[in-house]
Design goal:
It contains 9 helices and 14 strands. Strand 4 and strand 5 form a beta hairpin. By secondary structure, the protein is of the alpha/beta class. Helix 4 crosses helix 5. 30% of the residues lie in helices and 28% in strands. The longest helix is centred in the middle third of the chain and has 18 residues. It has a domain of 66 residues. Strands 6-7-8-3-9-10 form a 6-stranded mixed β-sheet, with helices on both faces. A 4-stranded antiparallel β-sheet has the order 2-1-4-5, covered by helices on one side. Strands 11-12 form a two-stranded antiparallel ribbon.
Length: 284
């Protein structure tokens, strides 16, 4: 197995007359647990699409384990890369049927049904994600957190070597955030599954990821360990946010806190309206 597992070299792609990535370079090692961070519109999703092939490259190359992805068929690519989208589509199918769809890239050319192995693999990830009691429920009848788990189970059922996740914890409560991140982290460590995710929660990124890529204006402005990337200066540069960085009391990982020092001491909302609310802050 090559050390440079995912190689993005001089990639240029994007939208004609619009947003572009220009000569972007990124390398991930096999078994990395990596996050892509940056403001909305910084190029995170475009970078993902350059890997999945949803956007055609106009320059450069993307290789996985030494193989150029541009030369693969959709089925061949899907056997190597699984993607969990930010928004999971629902339909008149059960959780088990949804998870089994992850086996489609492995069906033979003239096969229209799943075999024993397909069902066993799907059942493995249904159990792993804790969906066994909901496996016969329709997707339309489960919660947002359960729907996200179903999408992750389906992606894992593809048995990929690279798992891409687009904001896997967005809109979820702290229970599902922790559950999903813990599960992905355990899989990454136990099975050397390479994980690359777009993530907006900088504290989750700092807590779980061993490698971070910070983007701004279609370029990588910082990359490295969370301690290297999540500095006050880098976050101000990429996000325009004034923050304080402190080590986590247990793990020592960086924790990001908004700096309240620039807030006004008193702010009036709808001061001219009856029953207006007075908000005041007394900081240092």
């Amino acid at each position: 197995m090559r050390d440079d597992f995912l190689e993005i070299k001089n990639v240029t792609c994007g939208y004609p007359g619009g947003f572009m990535l220009n000569s972007l370079n990124l390398t991930l090692q096999k078994g990395a647990f990596a996050g892509i961070i940056g403001r909305n519109g910084s190029g995170k999703s475009t970078l993902f699409k350059s890997i999945t092939g949803d956007i055609k490259l106009t320059g450069g190359s993307v290789k996985l384990d030494g193989i150029s992805l541009s030369g693969l068929t959709l089925k061949e690519r899907a056997r190597r890369i699984a993607t969990v989208p930010q928004f999971v589509e629902t339909g008149p199918i059960t959780v088990r049927e949804h998870v089994l769809m992850g086996r489609v890239p492995w069906l033979s050319r003239f096969s229209y049904s799943y075999n024993k192995t397909d069902n066993e693999i799907a059942e493995k990830y249904i159990n792993l994600t804790g969906l066994n009691k909901l496996s016969d429920n329709p997707l339309t009848g489960i919660s947002g957190g359960e729907l996200q788990l179903s999408a992750i189970a389906s992606a894992l059922t593809q048995e990929p070597s690279l798992l891409l996740l687009d904001e896997p914890t967005a809109h979820l409560d702290i229970h599902y955030q922790a559950m999903i991140m813990d599960m992905l982290y355990s899989l990454n460590r136990a099975e050397k599954l390479t994980v690359l995710m777009i993530i907006h929660d900088l504290n989750l990124a700092g807590e779980y990821c061993d490698y971070l890529v910070m983007m701004k204006d279609g370029k990588i402005c910082a990359d490295g360990t969370p301690e290297e990337v999540l500095s006050s200066r880098n976050i101000m540069d990429a996000f325009g946010a004034d923050v304080l960085i402190t080590p986590h009391p247990v793990t020592g990982r960086p924790v990001i806190l908004r700096n309240p020092g620039n807030r006004p001491e008193q702010q009036t909302i709808n001061d001219s309206m009856p029953g207006s609310v007075q908000l005041s802050y007394h900081g240092n």
